[in-house]
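Because showing beats explaining, we let one protein speak, sequence and backbone structure tokens together, and leave readers to judge.
___
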Amino acid sequence: MESTINKIEIIIQHSSLNKEPNYSLCIDGNGNVEYNGISNVKTIGKHVTKLSSNDLKRVIHEFDDVYFFSFKDSYHLSDSQQHQPQLLQTSVSLRLGDKFKNIKYVEGATRLPSELKDLVKTVEKITNVDKLSGRERY
């Protein structure tokens, strides 16, 4: 597993044209976590921390538990929802060894799996990015 561990990259990005938080989170195979707060967040700018090896394994386990690679590549609003104002958009990507998957979704999208949203919340909690972004209460 160690060779796979070094080939890990996890990126989560949130963006919106409204007052929703805009920030990104990147985790590498060494457990380095880089948060970049862009707007409507508690902490603006870059903030770097490091996960313990146990927490890094826990993050990877969270992706495995929800069968991340089995999700669709995107989840959009239905035609009847298109009139809604621009909602929070999220992109989650995982590189694990030679496997790569990027999923994009819009908050409120039709058939958006709750497991995917819960995964993002859990990863942000493990990395403490939820506190930097101010989203620890959601």
